[in-house]
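Data availability (excerpt). The following record was deposited with the supplementary files.
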Amino acid sequence: MIFSILMAGGRGTRLNNKVEKPLYNFNGKPLIDHVIENLQKSKVDKIIIALSPHTNQTLKHLKEKGFKNFNLNLLDSYNEFILSTPGEGYLKDYNYILGLLEKHSKKDTVLFINTDLPFINYNILNKVLNEYLKIQTDALSVFVPEEIFNTYNLDYKYAYKGLVPSGLNIVRSENIIQEQEDLILPHIELALNMNTLNNIQIGLKLLK
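Predicted structure:
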């Protein structure tokens, strides 16, 4: 089974807006809706939205869209769930999620994606999943060449050896340290992280 985990618990303070980050209006609809629609068109089997105490309005929004509270016993009945995490940082939430999923199986595929990546369409998602299914390691992390960010004047936190993490990763459903392989994709869609006002302005220009 292929799970997609949409990490949507961030405050979005860099956007200088009182609206929760997942609900930030981008090109006519909330950021989170763009990512959900891309996931729905991809080959993933289950969509789980990971929320935190910081995103209560997003919880309400997802309830209105029909998402169910996560329950292992409901996996055969529904495909879209809300999962409340402690909200104590990405890594702790990541471990919390894998700790739950391994109770279902330690052999499932788990794709993690951030809520501020609306340009990663289903073709890219499927491409990354297909690459993961070919490799022998348990984890795959997707990176983007730093030059793409510089070419488009996009903001990013850090780079290592000329590569920037995309926010898209795949692991096996077990809460342990897993051997990782890196996948480098020179796609602008992976670099368009809508987490700063500068990146949002550039993203809107590229849409036109």
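Summary of structural features: The mean pLDDT is 94.
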